[in-house]
Amino acid sequence: MRRGQLAPLVALLGLLTACRGGRTVPIRVLGLPEKQDSDERLIAEAFAILDLDYEHSVRSRGTIHISLIDLNFEVDAPGTSVGQTLLERRCSKALVAQRDPIYVAHEVGHVLGLGHVCESSDCGPEDDGNLMHGGNAAGTELTEGQFDDLDKGSRKLNRCR
Ligand SMILES: [Zn+2]
Questions:
Q1: Architecture of domain 29-158
Q2: Distance, CA 137 to ligand 1 centroid (Å)?
Q3: Cβ pair 91, 157 in contact under 8 A
Q4: Which residue, 54, 58, 159, 50, is CA-closest to 110?
Q5: Where are the domains of the chain?
Q6: DSSP 8-class letter at 33
Q7: Which pLDDT score is estimated for 31?
Q8: Nearest-angstrom CA–CA distance, 135 and 69
Q9: pLDDT digits (tens, 9 = 90+) for 97-115
Q10: What is the distance in A from the centroid of ligand 1 to the CA of 40?
Q11: From ligand 1's centre to the CA of 106, what distance in Å?
């Protein structure tokens, strides 16, 4: 292939990369009516970490069902999970998470296909900043590969509509 023939391909790849984050994820948030405004801000923060757009949906299929809870696990139940993936099927996804954008983003990452970058025993300092840390969820960073997987996961979910 000659150099000139590659140009359209390179342009297309650039366009595809630029489109990352434009994928809209349908969600349904189960919270408390009096917390609706703060929950909306929390969800917006969580999806900003994931570099994904979202829209509220009343559909059951093809929607991520997000239950927000107020338990403070660090205080009330130390050592237990701050969030949990409840259902992770192709078109049926549900999770529960403590009201914290990082925990919500972490669990949404799981239901869209991301695994942990490490588990507590084998986590090194290089893993500390990653959102998908398996020990302590405190980071907000994602690798290019993880962003690509999120994009794939959200595209799959959108095909359920
Ligand atoms: Zn996890």
A1: 3-Layer(aba) Sandwich (3.40)
A2: 8
A3: yes
A4: 50
A5: 29-158
A6: G
A7: 87
A8: 20
A9: 989 999 999 999 999 999 9
A10: 22
A11: 6
What spacing in Å lies between the alpha carbon of 7 and ligand 1's midpoint? Answer: 41
| Distance between Cα 83 and ligand 1 center (Å) | 8
Residue-by-residue pLDDT tens, the chain, 161 positions: 565 666 666 565 555 554 454 489 999 999 889 999 999 999 999 999 999 999 999 999 999 999 998 876 666 666 666 688 888 888 999 999 989 999 999 999 999 999 999 997 889 999 999 999 988 778 999 999 999 999 999 999 999 96
**46 in Cβ contact with 101 (< 8 Å):** yes
Whole-angstrom distance, CA of residue 149 vs CA of residue 121? 25
* Residues linked to residue 53 through DSSP beta bridges, in sequence order: 24
- Tokens at residue 15, please? 């366009």
Q: Report the mean per-residue pLDDT for the chain.
A: 86
Output DSSP code: residue 117: S
What's the CA-to-centroid distance between 12 and ligand 1, angstroms?
34
